[in-house]
Design goal:
Elements (H helix, E strand, L loop, with lengths): L1 E6 L8 H11 L5 E6 L2 E4 L3 H5 L8 E7 L3 H15 L1
Helix pairs in contact: 1-3
């Protein structure tokens, strides 16, 4: 299992457009990717679950990847967070 922590920089937090792109992007990995924060946890591939977490600017999230391609999955997901959130 691989993971990283990230503090949300976007003014509106994790919102619909980038969350939708994230959900679509993580489906290409065989690894399970999970986002935890604000006392909740969600499968990164489920848009409504991610949106329901209520992650706002300044909150820290932990993203984990577990599976066969976890190294690639976590590296590319971390890059996505830095570029979009």
């Amino acid at each position: 299992m691989k993971s990283f922590n990230y503090v949300i920089q976007d003014e509106v937090g994790i919102h619909a457009r980038p969350a939708g792109i994230l959900a679509k992007a993580v489906k290409k990995y065989s690894s399970k990717i999970t986002i935890s924060g604000n006392g909740k946890s969600a499968d990164a591939g489920k848009l409504m679950a991610v949106m329901g977490m209520g992650i706002k600017k300044g909150m820290e999230v932990t993203v984990t990847a577990e599976g066969e391609d976890e190294d690639t999955a976590i590296a590319e997901t971390e890059k996505f967070f830095k570029e979009n959130f």
